[in-house]
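Researcher: Let's do a round of design. I'm pasting the structure tokens now; please hold your answer until I've finished.
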């Protein structure tokens, strides 16, 4: 009787799963992608030094194959397997080396050259991950992706705006190193300015409406900024928090000039004249508050880069009104920074972008950039209750239903969401390129925030929840198979006293009760 030939049993479910038969036939492949989502158990991922996710796939299917082994085949197969494994490891090392040195996929201009070890707070801002929101994606059949802006150092998308506003002001000379940045903000921009300003050698003074979540002003004070809480009034009122912030910048400039003139009294005539000429003029109008206190040699962030110290204790550096609503540095932050990141992270494959608007900077900058890259990308506004932007986009007229024909209430309860919705068109919003608008409700935002927390572990704030409501609406209208991107502006940590306060919600009949997404079907 003939003795049967021995058999080779191939190794299975290893990092490199090789198939053996008469010949060794390994198959390896590499795939890089910045979108982090689960594809299966044999899809190990590593975070590359640049910050994007690299997906490494060894494309051999796990299986057990038995085949006759001719004489000498065992040794040959073993040698071939070792050689193939070494080649695969070498190829992986080369790929990661190229990706580390920048020879791999390019980064946005804003984040180019950044390393795994980032130099200081400012380099940690931006380049946030674009994450797949699994529950919403599975429910709609679309890829719904959220830009995780709550991972910025200051905790929100407004970090980008704070950086851009301060950098442009320093470069133009409107803000001097050691000066004070003033702003009227409901919270997030104020927190970002208070976070970023010290990195540029500046101080911060914030005027905030007293109906904003108390934890926001507490955070701002903890960051070392001056906080001034005022009652909420119409923007046409001189005591609106934005108008007060503008006045504070003017007052700081007048005080600075007075101090400089006083200190110059002991100098000789020519030096006195030269110093007076190098100081800026103080304008009397609020609308020109930023055209003040410029110096003959502009103070920019290069001063900080060259280790020149700023006089933090001096009040002679004046103030600068950030003016986030009308300052187009806000729009430029997203056109030059956020938009390119989204385009790169999706590799240009997105079909739609949707976001709410407050100042309008985010939706304007991102929509304009994406439209320039691909006119087929649809961009939509998501508007909360009490805001007139929905009517502006859909009908061309800025008013809310409550304001029509003089029906506006004296003290209307608009929305519990913060940082979004407005009843005027800002310069930043004018830059937006939109295809349509959706309107959400407070209940939808509350229910969505709890749904995301329960199903995805995402603890997001009110504006982020409203954005996700918009993302589902867009996905349903487009149909399965599309990619929809939105912004996760900030986390729920800043909304504990209102949006995540059970008693507060109960007082406004907003206690969440939904178990799924049925609240969007009502």
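Researcher: That's everything. Go ahead.
Model: Designed sequence:
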């Amino acid at each position: 009787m003939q003795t049967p030939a021995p058999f080779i049993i191939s190794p299975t479910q290893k990092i490199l799963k090789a198939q053996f038969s008469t010949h060794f036939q390994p198959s390896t492949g590499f795939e890089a992608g910045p979108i982090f989502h689960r594809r299966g158990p044999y899809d190990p991922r590593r975070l590359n030094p640049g910050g994007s996710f690299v997906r490494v796939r060894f494309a051999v299917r796990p299986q057990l194959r038995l085949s006759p082994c001719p004489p000498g085949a065992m040794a040959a197969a073993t040698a071939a397997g070792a050689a193939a494994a070494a080649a695969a490891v070498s190829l992986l090392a080369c790929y990661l080396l190229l990706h580390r040195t920048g020879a791999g996929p390019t980064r946005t201009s804003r984040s180019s050259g950044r390393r795994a070890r980032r130099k200081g707070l400012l380099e940690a801002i931006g380049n946030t991950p674009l994450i797949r929101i699994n529950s919403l994606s599975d429910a709609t059949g679309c890829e719904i992706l959220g830009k995780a802006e709550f991972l910025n150092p200051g905790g929100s998308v407004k970090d980008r705006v704070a950086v851009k506003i301060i950098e442009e002001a320093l470069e133009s000379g409107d803000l001097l190193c050691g000066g004070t940045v003033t702003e009227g903000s409901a919270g997030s921009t104020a927190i970002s300015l208070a976070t970023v300003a010290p990195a540029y050698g500046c101080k911060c003074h914030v005027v905030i409406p007293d109906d904003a979540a108390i934890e926001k002003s507490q955070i701002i004070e903890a960051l070392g900024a001056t906080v001034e809480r005022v009652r909420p009034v119409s923007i046409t009122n001189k005591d609106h928090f934005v108008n007060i912030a503008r006045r504070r910048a003017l007052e700081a400039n007048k005080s600075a000039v007075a101090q400089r003139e006083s200190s110059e009294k002991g100098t000789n005539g020519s030096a006195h004249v030269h110093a007076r000429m190098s100081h800026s003029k103080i304008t009397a109008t609020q609308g020109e508050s930023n055209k003040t206190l410029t110096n003959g040699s502009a103070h920019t962030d290069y001063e900080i880069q060259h280790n020149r110290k700023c006089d933090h204790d001096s009040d002679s550096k004046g103030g600068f009104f950030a003016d986030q609503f009308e300052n187009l540095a806000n729009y430029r932050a997203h056109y030059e920074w956020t938009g390119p990141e989204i385009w790169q992270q999706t590799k240009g494959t997105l079909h739609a972008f949707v976001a709410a608007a407050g100042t309008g900077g985010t939706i304007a900058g991102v929509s304009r950039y994406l439209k320039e890259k691909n006119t087929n990308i649809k961009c939509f506004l998501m508007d909360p209750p009490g805001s007139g932007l929905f009517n502006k986009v859909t009908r061309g007229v800025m008013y809310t239903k409550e304001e029509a024909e003089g029906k506006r209430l004296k003290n209307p309860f608009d929305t519990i969401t913060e940082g979004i919705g407005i009843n005027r068109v800002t310069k930043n919003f004018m830059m937006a390129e939109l295809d349509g608008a959706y309107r959400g409700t407070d209940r939808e935002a509350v229910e969505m925030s709890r749904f995301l927390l329960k199903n995805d572990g995402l603890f997001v704030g009110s504006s982020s929840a409203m954005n996700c409501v918009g993302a589902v609406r867009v996905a349903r209208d487009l149909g399965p198979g599309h990619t929809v991107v939105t912004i996760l502006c900030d986390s729920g940590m800043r909304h504990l006293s209102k949006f995540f306060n059970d008693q507060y919600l109960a007082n406004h009949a907003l206690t969440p009760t939904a178990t799924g997404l049925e609240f969007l079907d009502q």
